[in-house]
Please model this.
Amino acid sequence: MTTHFHKKPNTYVSHVQIKVSNLERSVEYYKNVIGFQVLGQTDHTAAFTTDGKTSILSIEEVKDALPLQRGQTGLYHFAILLPTRKDLGNFIQHISELNVPIGAGDHHVSEAIYLYDPDGNGIEVYADRPEEEWIWNGNTVYMTTEPMNFRSLLAIADGTWNGLPEGTVMGHIHLSVADLRKTEAFYTKALGFEVVTRYGSRALFISTGKYHHHIGLNTWESLGGSPAPENSVGLKSYTLVMDNEEKAELVKKNLKELGHVVEIFEEAPKFGGSQAFSTVDPSGIRIVFTLDGE
Model:
């Protein structure tokens, strides 16, 4: 598994915080369909785990929640990275038995399944191909979308799906943004990410440490859009792990010089690492920064 891309010194996503309209319904979905265990739960929140100790996803019920609308910025999908291709085969076998509607794609660097939770929040469950098979042209990695070879994946499945396996991580997050040029400048100049793939003028993919992407950014449905209202379902925040205090101070300096807020987010998730500080990207998307990570 390509686990070193989700460890320091890389900057990577450790946790995603989602808003939902019905906590009980969503807990059942994330347990029974996606395969999480519940690490902790209150009357309006739940944190999910695969190892019984750490959490990569938490949800929060919003009172009188508004549904997602086209044209809003925020979450396109969050992506759960499985340890092995066999795990992906077992997951496909599992969801086929539940008759869950899915999308799928072979991106050359990875193979992915796409789903939506009960509120329409986008989810990807994927497995990376070995990084030796990725094709780089300078600083650009080749990615595509081809039909998935389900027969090959199911051939290595062994029917032992017992939920998301230990070693599962938050592989990346894909965001719907309002202005790709401003967003690229923010993530590269302020946060230090590198562009590794462009899809025309409407999408790009960024990473650190030559991963195929830690963050995807697109304007396919959100060009010129605005953030969803506070009481809407969708993305509340996501957490980025930074390497050390020196890196944190550099990011703070960059953010301030470029006119972005540096503050403490009072509603930051309990999991994913202790908050160092927080900011908001040009599309109104909340980012929490932490130094806690491997």
Notes: The first helix runs from residue 23 to 34.
